Amino acid sequence: VTQECYVQNTAREYAKIYAAEAEPLEGFGEVPEIIPIFLVHRPANNIPYATVEEELVGEFVKYSVRDGKEVNFLRRDTEAGQKCCTFQHWVYEKTNGSLLVTDLQGVGMKLTDVGIATLAKGYKGFKGNCSISFIEQFRALHQCNKYCEMLGLKSLRTSHQKQRKTAALKSKTLPNSSSMKKTVPKKAREPRDFIASEH
Fold first, then answer.
1. Please, what's the b/e burial string for 120-129 (b: 16 or more CB within 10 A of its CB; e: otherwise)?
2. Which of 46, 81, 174, 195 would bridge 75 by S-S if both were Cys, CB 3.0 to 4.6 A apart?
3. Exactly one of 67, 103, 113, 193 is catalytic; which is it?
4. From start to end residue, where is composition biased (Basic and acidic residues) (predicted)?
5. Cβ–Cβ < 8 Å for 85, 102
């Protein structure tokens, strides 16, 4: 329960900075807000700790990708969905790819029950509650929209493709390609730090 509050309120702080940068931009308009979540202590109750947050009334929508199997295409067609994807891109760029706010969902521009994935377990002393694979997946699937352009965010696709091309060129120049196969892809993939997800 404490972790849930910590995750959502950390994401909320990033959303406030995002809003401060995006709101003054001409034509950007309303910015998504992550609602605060509070921890309540009830000593007389069987469950001594609970969380309290504003009730969101209306159609509840998942705007961001949770995993490879669940891609919500609604997010590309709605203003809130596009701005959520831009927020993810903005946080990713702001933290140099070290942190990603995931599971963006809510009613309209009001979001709740978000997650956080971090590249390193103790990034800035922060424990994420989502797997690092969320970051890899975001980098591969994110499609920039007009709000990404307004904020001057760099396309993830081009930098990702450039890295692939340079890796491909290096493999061609090596005389023994069989040793290359053994050393590069497997070692790069095996030592992943998975953070147990509570979802």
1. eeeeeeeebb
2. 81
3. 103
4. 187-199
5. no
pLDDT, tens only, 1-59: 788 898 999 999 999 999 999 999 999 999 999 999 999 999 999 989 999 999 999 99
Query: DSSP string of 101-157?
Result: EE--EEETTEEES-EEEESSTTGGG---SB-THHHHHHHHH----HHHHHTTPPPHH
CA atoms within 13 A on the CB side of 138: 32
> Is 103 annotated as catalytic?
yes
What dotted CATH number matches 1-151?
Answer: 3.20.200.10
Q: How many residues does the chain have?
A: 199
Terminal Cα distance for the chain, rounded: 12
Nearest to 153 by CA among 91, 84, 81, 101: 91
- Every domain of the chain and the residues it spans: 1-151
Amino acid letter, residue 45: N
Helix, strand and coil in the chain, % to nearest 5: 45, 15, 40
CB neighbours (10 Å) of residue 68?
Answer: 12
Tokens read off for 110: 């009001």
